[in-house]
Amino acid sequence: MALRSLLAAVAVGGAAAAFSAASSVTSPVTTHLVMPLVRLLDPETAHVMAVRVAASGLLPTTRADAHPSLATTVWGKQFSNPIGLAAGFDKHADCIDAMLGVGFGFVEIGSVTPVAQPGNPKPRVFRLTDDRAVINRYGFNSFGLDYAHDRLSERVADPAARGFQHGIVGVNLGKNKTTVDAADDYVQGINKLGKFADYIVVNISSPNTPGLRSLQGKQELGALIDRVLVARDRLGLPSQASAAVRGRVPPLLVKIAPDLTPADKEDIASVLMDKKVDGLIVSNTTISRPATLKSPASLTQETGGLSGAPLRQLATETVRDMYTLTQGRLPIIGVGGVSTGDDAFEKILAGASLVQLYSSIVYDGPGIVPKIQSRLAELLAENSFTSVSDAVGAEHRGFRRK
């Protein structure tokens, strides 16, 4: 424990000095000093330290609008670029502005549960370095709605003093482990945090909360959506809403798993179209273990959800299927295995209007964000697309990339 504490102190101190000296998140100092130093720590400690460094304002900033061709509009909202930070990194709304500052076009916090809960016993996060992957079984560790509410309130109350960055903020909601009435947990989340959200996510696809994925069933999903839509729609009422949100309501998205049968996908698409849900996040981590994994079995067989490079193909196939089943009418955020501009472009062609990443930051640090954006801008130009929206779902229209 003493060695772990010492490494944590060194990592934070080294990160502070390095980030202060670095001129950008793509600096060689960041890539060759900070990231190897952080990887001396166990994965969860490194995650906690990374959030603390970001929340301390030590990350250098880069322009989120550096590539005009990446600007896009979804749900009537202006995104400077389509690359977002997936839920799971900033679980408690501690470092939104820092992550927008490194170039993300949008940041999604959470999952946030109504009541604070510790999650599953440690260790619960594992790096599969040979596969550029991560297995986690966090189990919705959350500081709860009150904490997230306070952080979001502080952010908007005094933006100048807190490094406020303009950008889209999504709120990802989960349920407490012991809750029987899951819908009530999501309704509480909407009531408490909805006024801060540019979009709201109902996360029913984590494999680490018992019974959660059963909510993806047709009847269960339909009943859940009915209740959360009522709560969401009430945000637009004058008695419920602040002046900033009065008369409008945030889009409601559902986050689904990649481990779905064709019948499961058809049922989900049918419910979401019938209930007029606003969009999908595809997908969460997978409980499958591809035969191509290179890491030791002692790691690959850990219980939990697998993310990172091995998830890329399965997640993209799920994006492709859901785009087809929803007839391209529901915007999709594609997530899973994105570490290059080519990966992002692949998901956009398959039907994603926006793309998220998380695990690639574990291996490449925040400097990966502008690199992905630069490559994506190049690919759009090379393939004669004038905008991201032109490329969304293009492969379904017979397009083949150059």
Automatic annotation (TrEMBL):
One of its GO terms (biological process) is 'de novo' pyrimidine nucleobase biosynthetic process. Its main location: mitochondrion. It comes from the Eukaryota. Its cofactor is FMN. Residues 1-17 form the signal peptide. It is found in: Mitochondrion inner membrane. It is a single-pass membrane protein. It catalyses: (S)-dihydroorotate + a quinone = orotate + a quinol. It is an enzyme of class 1 (oxidoreductase). Residues 70-380 form the Dihydroorotate dehydrogenase catalytic domain. Keywords: Flavoprotein, FMN, Membrane, Mitochondrion, Mitochondrion inner membrane, Oxidoreductase, Signal, Transit peptide, Transmembrane, Transmembrane helix. Pathway: Pyrimidine metabolism; UMP biosynthesis via de novo pathway; orotate from (S)-dihydroorotate (quinone route): step 1/1. GO terms for molecular function: dihydroorotate dehydrogenase (quinone) activity. GO terms for cellular component: mitochondrial inner membrane. Belongs to the dihydroorotate dehydrogenase family. Type 2 subfamily. This is Dihydroorotate dehydrogenase (quinone), mitochondrial. It comes from Capsaspora owczarzaki (strain ATCC 30864).
